[in-house]
Amino acid sequence: MAVRVVLADDHRLLLEGLAQALNGIPDIDVVATAEDGDQLQEMVSEHGPDVILVDVEMPKTTGIAALGAMEDGPPAIMVTMHADAEHRAKALAVGAVGFMSKSTPLPALAAAIRAAAAGKSLMGDDVDAILDDHREPVFADGAAALTAREKELLAMLASGVSSTDELADKLFISQKTVKNHLASIYEKLGITDRAQAAVEAIRLGLHRK
Amino acid sequence: MAVRVVLADDHRLLLEGLAQALNGIPDIDVVATAEDGDQLQEMVSEHGPDVILVDVEMPKTTGIAALGAMEDGPPAIMVTMHADAEHRAKALAVGAVGFMSKSTPLPALAAAIRAAAAGKSLMGDDVDAILDDHREPVFADGAAALTAREKELLAMLASGVSSTDELADKLFISQKTVKNHLASIYEKLGITDRAQAAVEAIRLGLHRK
DNA sequence: ATGAAAATGGGTCGAGCGGCCTATGTCGAA
DNA sequence: TTCGACATAGGCCGCTCGACCCATTTTCAT
Asked: N or C: which terminus of chain A has fewer CB atoms within 10 Å of its end residue's CB?
């Protein structure tokens, strides 16, 4: 049922943190992690994951090289700190189905993983949109990208205030502005509706007053 | 901003448990509690709450009597273990704006408190509907009233699966059945949409697989 | 002082959601 | 064995939500 994932990254903090975070998502299972391209190939043949998530920059065999060596492997999503055109081109050239910046919010990454597992690919506009939105921010925090007003709105959502009407009243703004804020929240967090926004708000600790 | 509430009930367990639970709701503040009608009148004049929540059956001055003695007090919601017609009639006679069974789910009670604070009253059909639905169950748990299938659905909601489509797929049922389950969840928890359902699901600990 | 980001607001439109009613089959308890 | 609760499913309708377009004003850092 759950999507089985293998992670590869040479930064252990990121590797373990991300594994932890992804395992916190019910329908995603991190079955193994690797610290370089060689280990990655081992883990993939040993565990046969549905999706692999690979850092572009890795010691020994790089992510690019490892992917190139694995013909007929599971769909791969490339992750990188440098979301520039050259890296992307190389990643796509070796068969990656997706390409995400390390500053991508977790839900967006989760969405990409599910999409990859389902055989879809995050090419073209999808990737470009994601890259455009998350090229700058240094933190992969998610909440860090939200403005003060957006956090306020999310906090209300997380306390059970869900209708546009009520939100507008309690924030002293028009219903249209509520919808605008929600739209930009959806985009930043990689989600699509209020129910998911409520879940994220609580996960990010935005509830409690 | 938050609604200030005074609770009165002679059962300390219920009194303290309910106070705890209500304080867990961001926009509700329990400012004082009382164990009988006399204490209630003291606390009300001392704290000037927005709403009072009173047990019908209390030693010394009963809830009914205490309310009768307080002309021009804040709006009162009567709570009782015996949700029968006679008690309700008496409660309404002394000016209660609402009348809830002790087996009412917490969100429904919270909704009633907000409504009372806003000057609305939970008369007529609203109260009757609530009484009809919660006359039997002994626990005021909320989650206890949910069926296994409903909890499953809520758990998925709490993990970010929000669309009817996805929910139907993952539960192997039709979209219509998903909507039916959601409708009965809304009714049981006193909520109106998926965003609130997600919040409640997490609050009830229904997430984590 | 200039420009970017944030907060505010408007309109349109289609798809999805929630309310309400009915119906069927399967349980288990009275 | 009858009644009720639960899970399943369909239809209908009105309204809300989210997507995509836009504009204005303020604030703040450069």
From this structure: N
Q: Which residue is nearest to nucleotide C11 (CA to C1')?
A: A176
Which bases of strand C have any atom within 7 Å of the beta carbon of a protein residue? Answer: 5-11, 16-22
Per-residue CA distances from A57 to A10, A66, B115, B137 (Å): 8, 11, 57, 59
Q: Is the pTM of this model over 0.85?
A: no
SS3 of chain B: CCEEEEEECCCHHHHHHHHHHHHCCCCEEEEEEECCHHHHHHHHHHHCCCEEEEECCCCCCCHHHHHHHCCCCCCEEEEECCCCHHHHHHHHHCCCCEEEECCCCHHHHHHHHHHHHCCCCCCHHHHHHHHHHCCCCCCCCCHHHCCHHHHHHHHHHHCCCCCHHHHHHHHCCCHHHHHHHHHHHHHHHCCCCHHHHHHHHHHCCCCCC
The answer to whether the CB atoms of A26 and B200 lie below 8 A apart is no
**B53-78 as b/e: b if 16+ CB within 10 A:** bbbbebeebbbbebbeebeebbbbbb
- CA dist B116 and A50 (Å) reads 53
What pLDDT shows up at residue A33? 79
Rounded CA–C1' distance between A204 and D28, in angstroms? 27
Residue type for position B57 = E
Using DSSP's 3-state secondary structure scheme, residue A9 falls into: coil
Chain A contact residues (CB < 8 Å to B): 25-27, 107, 110, 155, 157-160, 162-163, 191-200, 202, 207-209
**Maximum distance among all Cα pairs of chain B, rounded to whole angstroms:** 58
Give the residue on B whose Cα is nearest the Cα of A203: B202
Q: pLDDT digits over B93-122, tens only?
A: 455 666 666 555 666 677 777 766 665 544
What's the CA A180/C1' C7 distance, rounded, in angstroms? 10
